[in-house]
Each structure stands twice: as structure tokens, then as C-alpha cells.
Amino acid sequence: MVRRGYDVLSEHYERAFGSETKYGPWMWELLGRVPEAGAVLDIGCGTGVPVARALVAAGQRVTGVDISEVQIRRARELVPGADFIRADATTLELPPGSFDAVVCLYVLIHVPVEEQPALLELIASWLRPGGWFLSTTGHRAWTGTDENWLGGGAAMWWSHADAATNRAWLVRVGFDVVHEEFVPEGDSGHVLFWARHHTPAPYAAGSEPELVRGTVTVRGRGQKWSTSTTAWAKAVGASWGTLWPMPGSVRCWYAPVNLER
Ligand SMILES: C[S@@+](CC[C@H](N)C(=O)[O-])C[C@H]1O[C@@H](n2cnc3c(N)ncnc32)[C@H](O)[C@@H]1O
């Protein structure tokens, strides 16, 4: 329903909510946090305006992902300097640790609430250690449909957890919630989160070792550490790490043993 809704309502959404400047302060903040020519993933990028367009103009390398064919077609026309993928973010496969930031504005609210923790886990895996996640989520728990959204003749569906649940999910998958703010909309609103992926290095500033990155197979799901990952960590001389158990394989970062500690 969401995919079809945005296919039909792409231009209605743009007329109702589109503006080059609507996220201006958030984009400036993001640009101050990512490296020059950094890699940014925009999940639920819509038409690529304003997020992908603003980031590309500032020299970032942007990948946009959207479930709607029409949104992606328009994004390719409007922002030729970014790469766009038509995909459902919940089943997307991307290389682990490959982005400096992930942006996900007004998108999680369209993902079934029971699938949101797994998507957050994926997002954490796509970020480099220390990478930023800029996201809006629901403020109150609610799931519902509007049969004729924006008067455009198509239905739309939303699925929210409340702010505290969203915060807890972020922490559980390895984020520090750096900032949280209520963003009003009509008589309700959303929550904006700035979250930073843990920098996995308890080393003194200036003595951080090179990180070892690897993908290993995990037996079973939901284990923080498994026999195989621990063995792998030992094999590469890693002392500790952050990992995100996924079905099949696991993406993880380890700091090699610092022998001087
Ligand atoms: C409310 S619009 C927001 C667009 C843009 N992020 C913005 O803030 O202007 C939500 C977008 O998320 C996309 N979307 C919804 N569910 C998605 C999913 N599971 N995977 C990828 N995109 C999704 C929709 O097609 C739509 O373009």
C-alpha cells in the first residue's frame, strides 16, 4: 500500500510537503559532521529533493533508496549527481561499514512497527564506526490508514512506536542518542533523532589502532557473541568489538589488541 501510495501520490506529496529548504538546518548540521566527500545513504529518499540534492551540491557522495518506482524515476531526473536504488530498505543488502551517515526522514513511520528494530540493526551495520544517523520517527504509538491521503485518490499507511521505544531500539543496536527533539506537525508531530554509532575504540585519543573489519558466520540469531565470531576475533588478534547479529552472516568491527595497554 505504501509503495503504490507513493507511486500515485509522488506529486501530491511534493505539493503538500516539498520545499528545497524544509530541512535546511538539519542538512547544515549533517554537513558539519560528515567528512568532505563523505558517503551518505538517504533511505526513503523520495524525489531526492531536498536531501540528496543539497548533499550532492555540498560535494557528498549520495546513495538514495526508495521503495517507489515513481519516486526513484523522478529522483534520477532531479538529482543526476546521486545514485538511486529502487528497493525496500528492509530487504536491502549493502556493504557493511560503508557510509559516514544515514538519513531516514519520515520513512520509518511507513515500515511495519515489528520490522523497525531489524531495519535499525541493518542501518547500524551500514555505518562506519562513529557514523551518524539522522532520522525521524513516530512520537506516539499508532498504526493506521488514510484511504484518500492528500485527496489524491490513493491510500496510505503508517505504523509508529512511541518516542521512548524508538530511543531504546536505537541504543540496543549500538547508537548513542546525541540529540532528540519533538517536531510538531498539525496537532501531533514526530521525533527527530541524531544518533551516533559507537566508535569502538576505548583507546586514548591519538593512539587509536587501525580497525579490522570483517564478516563472519554466526550460528543462531540474536547472540551478542557466538563461538565462531569469538574464534574469528582471536584469529585476527582482536580484543573486542561491536557486532550486529544478522541471519547468516554478521558484520563487525574489531579494534586489534593494543599490546601496550
Ligand atoms: C514521507 S516520504 C519522505 C521522503 C523524503 N525522505 C523526505 O523527507 O522528503 C516517505 C518515502 O519513504 C519511501 N518508503 C516508504 N517505505 C519504504 C521502504 N520500506 N523502503 C524504502 N523506501 C520506503 C516512500 O516511497 C516515500 O518516498
What is the topology?
Elements: H1 2-17, H2 24-33, E1 39-43, H3 51-57, E2 61-66, H4 69-78, E3 83-86, E4 99-104, H5 116-126, E5 127-138, E6 142-146, E7 156-160, H6 163-172, E8 175-185, E9 188-197, E10 212-217, H7 227-235, E11 238-244, E12 249-256
Parallel strand pairs: 1-2, 1-4, 2-3, 4-5
Antiparallel strand pairs: 5-9, 6-7, 8-9, 10-12, 11-12
Bound molecules: S-adenosylmethionine.
S-adenosylmethionine binds next to helix 1 and strand 2.
Structure commentary:
The protein has helices at 2-17, 24-33, 51-57, 69-78, 116-126, 163-172, 227-235; strands at 39-43, 61-66, 83-86, 99-104, 127-138, 142-146, 156-160, 175-185, 188-197, 212-217, 238-244, 249-256. It is α/β, with parallel strands linked by helices and 261 residues long. The protein has two domains: 2-197, Rossmann fold (3-Layer(aba) Sandwich), CATH 3.40.50.150; 212-256, no CATH class. Strand 8 (175-185) and strand 9 form a beta hairpin. The protein is globular. Mean pLDDT is 81; it is low at 200-230 and 236-261. The chain binds S-adenosylmethionine. The site of S-adenosylmethionine has 18 residues, from helix 1 and strand 2.
